[in-house]
Amino acid sequence: MLSRRGCHSGTSVWSSHAGGRGAGGRTGGERRGAEAGRCGRHAGDGSDRRPTGAEWPGPGRARTLSSARGRDRAVARVALEPDRAGSYAGPFVEGADMAVEIPPLIKPSRLRRRGGLWGECLAEFLGTFVLIAFGAGVVAMAVAALPGSGRTEGPTTFFLGAGDWLLVCWGWAFAVTFGVYVAGGVSGAHLNPAVTLAFAARRGFPWAKVVPYWASQVVGAFAGAALVYAVYHDAINTFDQAMKGPKTNGHTVASFSIFATFPAPYFHGGVWGPLIDQIVGTALLVMLIVAIVDLRNTAVKANLGPVVIGFAVAAIGMSYGANAGYAINPARDFGPRLFTYVAGWGKLALPGSAAGSFSDYWWIPIVGPLVGGLIGVLVYDLFIGDVLHLRAQRKELPEVGRARPVDED
Asked: Which InterPro entries does this chain map to (predicted)?
């Protein structure tokens, strides 16, 4: 299990810049003295050394190092990066031993370029693919597969009660959790253009990587939607045939909801209601993410950050999901929307119009989350982050009655 204590990052949804004092209450200099004896040991030879600059992974990511000494080559360690001043800010994390060293699938000469941005984009692609595969998959189950397989009252019957919505909320929570676990060690697992933009604005994520991350996330979402359709197309087609009411190329708004979002009828086709909903939902999401990973605050430990972020997504779905499907992620909506346009949903997907219900909706789940993500990180930094930064500079003790972890010497 990877320890996050002392980890510096401005770019990951599962680790964050500790800023001054870490979760253990000591500064980086104090931790260095206490941990130097075990942090720099090379796997297998017991010698002490500090990792060289070439060995450090990118911001917010872990990297596996192997010993080159004989049989000890099978033992791996994970290193954390130094802080921005160049000092040693985190330990080698033990417990990554493997019975057999895992060889790369691709020859090392061809693998090198994947160690940088290309590898991070591949991780964002796969993480977002997993996100949509489980997220859109659970909606396909609820809307088409369960009714079509005789597990509900009728072939088009779903969501009989308000509690049935929990199936979708928890499904998306698991989808986010697993997507972050898949990609977190390589790219930081943003999986969401709103998160990437917020981290670039306030967490030091390089602006040059923003567009490549966005593209990878959208393509991953498109591929995830294609997988769900490949698995459930028979159930979806059967559902659409049984449904009565307006159809576009034989498809219904209900089957479209498996892949992308649209506003509730009570907005009467208006723009501001759904747009505000997306801004608020994504602001809450990003605010919770930066709080969960902030080691200066009561950050989640024991590598459970992705799980708690999944809880945050479930909470937003339960509290705000009915308004507009809680996209709160431009890639999560636009990638599957592109796929459904290609697969035959036509104007339901792009420009996102249904006669008498909504029109030209496609841009709202893009603009709303991008604006909301910026608001979320700014609100957190204004009300919480700045206070934590000031206290770290003053080296203030926590208030009376507040517990603080104490490191064992």
From this structure: Aquaporin-like, MIP, MIP/Aquaporin, MIP_CS
